């Protein structure tokens, strides 16, 4: 029994590290998920071909909404124009 106590005392650091590993890996996974979530919001930034296409699509969408808004205002549908 004395030998078992000595072995356990000698391995206290190992047990502490093993106890902390699940929390470390969980925080690492959460950090990766948050990073992916944040990077997803910045999809139109950058200098590449894909970023250029995404920016162009955003501009097209804004122009389409502006035309739709102006059409509603010209037709006297202010209530519909507020929802756009």
Automatic annotation (TrEMBL):
<dbReference type="Pfam" id="PF08637">
    <property type="entry name" value="NCA2"/>
</dbReference>
<keyword id="KW-0496">Mitochondrion</keyword>
<keyword id="KW-0812">Transmembrane</keyword>
<protein>
    <submittedName>
        <fullName>(wild Malaysian banana) hypothetical protein</fullName>
    </submittedName>
</protein>
<keyword id="KW-0472">Membrane</keyword>
<dbReference type="GO" id="GO:0031966">
    <property type="term" value="C:mitochondrial membrane"/>
</dbReference>
<keyword id="KW-1133">Transmembrane helix</keyword>
<feature type="transmembrane region" description="Helical">
    <location>
        <begin position="15"/>
        <end position="38"/>
    </location>
</feature>
<dbReference type="InterPro" id="IPR013946">
    <property type="entry name" value="NCA2-like"/>
</dbReference>
């Amino acid at each position: 029994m004395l030998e078992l106590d000595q072995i356990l005392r000698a391995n206290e650091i190992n047990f502490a590290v093993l106890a902390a590993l699940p929390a470390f890996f969980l925080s690492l996974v959460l950090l990766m998920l948050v990073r992916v979530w944040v990077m997803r919001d910045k999809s139109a930034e950058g200098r590449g071909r894909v970023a250029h296409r995404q920016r162009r699509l955003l501009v097209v969408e804004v122009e389409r909404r502006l035309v739709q808004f102006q059409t509603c205002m010209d037709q006297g549908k202010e209530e519909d124009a507020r929802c756009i």
